[in-house]
Design brief:
single chain; alpha+beta; Alpha-Beta Plaits; 2 domains; 7-stranded mixed β-sheet; two-stranded antiparallel sheet; 11 strands; RNA binding; PsdUridine_synth_TruA; EC 5.4.99.12; TruA/RsuA/RluB/E/F_N; tRNA pseudouridine(38-40) synthase activity
Length: about 240
């Protein structure tokens, strides 16, 4: 089953819709789950959080977890159900998110639609890491934001932007307090332009300061992007009785 992103859409099967249906079936009343973010079609999530409200007592959270996994599609897994405070919010209570983007250098059928195949000259990780340091800190990232977003502002605080080598290629990891629509894919596309010699360091810096999406590189495909971590303060969780 292929999902059209997280958020409910007309005439499309999404993760949110599927989870709502499973929760409503198991709990026997209508349930609406709110996710930590709205991943685009094709983007994967190794870790995702969602919250829901219910007026019915849930005595056995482990049993609820097993019941949900018993009726969900095999490419969705509920790892754990936790109690949280009434004012906790899966999206707005999050303090940090992390994404990874995978690139491989040789044809591999097991990585199809899971990693970006790059058949040209391999990248120099040290060069990519040097230019990626310009992303760190609190900045206006509107040059990497897809038009049509409804954010009140385009400032994000990037806390990590790092490339590492893998057994099959390279991986980009970025961590920030928040992300804009399409931001990570646009950043990766622009960094690859720099790594392949299409942009100079001065030009990359100019793009970052421009606030103009048209100056940045093309967005890379979504299928190699993974939401890998969402962080919350410990104070929102309630210990099981």
């Amino acid at each position: 089953m292929a999902f059209h992103g997280w958020q409910i859409q007309p005439n499309s099967i999404t993760v949110q819709q599927t989870l709502n249906e499973a929760l409503s079936t198991v709990l026997r009343h209508d349930v609406y789950a709110v996710g930590a973010g709205r991943t685009d079609t094709g983007v994967h999530a190794r870790q995702m959080f969602a919250h829901f409200d219910t007026s019915e007592p849930i005595d056995d959270l482990e049993r609820l977890t097993r019941s949900l996994n018993g009726i969900l599609y095999p490419n969705i897994a509920v790892n754990q159900v936790l109690r949280v405070r009434d004012d906790a919010h899966a999206r707005f209570s999050a303090t940090e998110r992390e994404y990874q983007y995978d690139i491989h250098y040789k044809h591999n059928p097991f990585l199809y639609q899971r990693s970006l195949l790059w058949l040209w000259q391999p990248f120099e990780v040290a060069d990519l890491n040097r230019i990626s340091q310009r992303l760190l800190g609190e900045k206006d990232f509107s040059c990497f934001e897809k038009t049509g977003g409804n954010n009140k502002h385009s400032f994000c605080q990037v806390r990590l932007a790092k490339w590492t080598e893998t057994d099959v290629g390279i991986r980009f990891t970025i961590r920030a307090n928040r992300f804009l629509r399409n931001m990570v894919r646009a950043i990766v596309g622009t960094l690859l332009d720099y790594g392949s010699g299409k942009l100079s360091e001065v030009e990359f810096a100019s793009i970052l300061e421009s606030g103009d999406r048209r100056q940045a590189g093309a967005s890379v495909p979504p299928y190699a992007l993974y939401l890998t971590q969402v962080c919350y303060p410990d104070t929102i969780f309630i210990a099981n009785e």
